[in-house]
Amino acid sequence: MALPRGLAGTIGTAARAARVQANLTQEDVAERVGLATEVYGRLERGGMLPSVPTLKKLCEVLRIPSDVLLGLTPAQENFWTKEPPARPVEEPGEIRRLVRTVKRLEPAEFRLLSLVATGLLRLRLMRQGRSSRDSSPS
Torsions phi, psi of 37, nearest 5? Predict the structure, then answer.
């Protein structure tokens, strides 16, 4: 069966525009939708059509109306600025990437990383304590 290139391209273009507007990476969207990053990239390039459940998740994650994603109505300039449904505060991209990396660690590697992070926090607290003592009047 031939892929309807026009629809796939329309969905991909709209998804990319909404993702960029939301300041998300392809990896961020792929993870939230439940796709491999490579698959999501192919979708954005118009190389594939999403399944109906994936299309629904895309609409939710990107906060884009399905009729806009499908090209049935033109995108309004600022449709994404409407009050979004209550959702947790977004972490900066660097933290999201770090969390994805940490999830791939083996248990021993995770424990080691945890010890390093704890040590860095203690070092910072020690430095802050020293600098506040140094600046206090004697």
Answer: -55, -40
